[in-house]
Amino acid sequence: MKSLGIVAIMGVGLIGGSIGLALRQRGLSDRVIGIGRKPARLRKAKQLGAVTETTTNIERGVSEADIVIVCTPVQYVVEHVKQISQYVRPEAMITDVGSTKQTIVEGLKNIENGQFIGSHPMAGSDQGGVVNAVADLFQKRTVVVTPHKRTSKNIQSRITKFWKSLGARVVELDCKEHDRAVAVISHLPHAISSVLSNQANAKQLLLAAGGWTDTTRIAGADPELWLAILRDNNKQVVRAVDRFLNDLHKFRDALDSDNSRVLLRYLNQGKQNRESLGN
Fold first, then answer.
1. Statement: the pTM of the whole predicted model exceeds 0.85
2. What's the rounded mean pLDDT across residues 246-268?
């Protein structure tokens, strides 16, 4: 496959590191530049092969880049892209990997240089950091891209090619539609998992097995990271929580009244929806 050129990654953690590993293992870039604030973490990323060179200086890291991927927490993405746009070439493509999109896309309608388009890889782990990065993280996973109405067709084509080259399936959504969807399939599950993890006492936790660990696994992710995500998408998450509580109350009432028909409807539909994923 043709080289994607020079790629700069700001924030070489789980996602950024996995992008770097995928690029290098697939021979898609000879220069993958890691940018960050902490030299020790950058050295680790280079040692693990996620990047070919590192820098703590944004200008030095992005000035020659053809593609820049911002992999920092959602509350910093707009600021970081604006900083990057001061130093990139006009034709450079800039994207991010944030779990929320409306605030980011609407905050980056106009930048100095480069062309921005939002991305959200629907891949990850409750275990963060570059030490947990893997080259096949995006293989057969969905990446949502969220162009603005001003986004050029060329940039839309380039971002699709980029993610597909890492093995992903690309879906295009409006940023508002994206945030509504992830509130249900990502942010609500995390909220439920976290609250559920608080329900058992120490003695009860001694009995915890597969059902508990499977359902609460994502509660083990970085709390500060998830606080920022939930706050940024709070309106959509509140709507999703309200719908969930409405159904949970119906389930509770059916259980209280021994209404097997309603209970089975929820249990069967839940089973069907889960099995439809095929994994």
1. yes
2. 97
